[in-house]
Fold:
Amino acid sequence: MGNIMIMGWDATAKVARRVLVNDEGKLIIDPSEIFEDPPTDGETGKAPNSNWAFDHAADASAHHARYTDEESRAAINNVLSSAGMLTKTLHCQYNIIDNLPEFMLRTTAASNHYMEFKTGTNIPICRLTAVKSGVGYVPAYIDIYNGTAYERVVVVPVMDAAIATHAAIAAAHHERYTDAEAIAAVGYNGTKHWSCPGIAFDPTQAADKQVVKSAAGYLNCMYADTILVAPVLLPHGAVVTQATVRGNAAAGDTSWVLNRFTLSDGAVVTMAVANINTVDSSISYATIDNELYAYYLYTAALAIDDQVWGARITYTI
Structure:
């Protein structure tokens, strides 16, 4: 057989070169062009050499089974119940400063779970217990630590198909409190009375008609033709049913008047009129409207030694 020459192209020198072989005619190849130790990340043209592959296969710590969710929870001493909930104690604590609250979720029994709030010094504060209901858990009661033990302060009805819902619990509901009941509770309904003593009156001619306001509460006229006036202050919405002015017998033939005064224009209308010591039950414009009007009493001219003892107005509201 004749000699065969295999040529390879040298791209750098741009010439053809003979391919080298050993005495047995095998190609002489540089292994570093194909294999490397250690392998390079991202290298797709080379493979790890046998030395690196052998060492890697023999390194037990370089291989392990996939870490499961169960193993992860078991590592922190916690597992999931069949309903997918935590069944062990879970501490969520921050202690940058002493005595800050600590939150804790614990299991007390197969059917109950509770959340407990404690201080950084491990002193209990309160506990919210959840009771199993159907396929889940609902808040059932709240306990507050009283220094020795937990004291129950709130009980919440458990809601599920087997237990009455809140709407069906009679003790949890009552009839709507009516306006009438509220008024009755504060004694704001029925017949009421307003009164003032005689000394609440003043003469309209103060400059020349002096009066004596007695410490006993009555007013005594010192001059003839003395006209008296007094303001009337009743609650808005009151309905006047009676009015009277009281005095001594000498004043009994003198009239009194209850007037309504319009705040916007000063117009006056008469609501009631009678003689002193006489009651008027025929009231005009009886409903009190303090937004638009003001109210007052006045007397006709009184004589010397006529006395006014006071006034009384009866109303409903």
In short: Residues 93-101, 160-164 have pLDDT under 50 and may be disordered. The chain has three domains: 7-61, 74-171, 191-316. The helical segments are 50-58, 69-75, 179-185. The first strand starts at residue 7 and ends at 10.
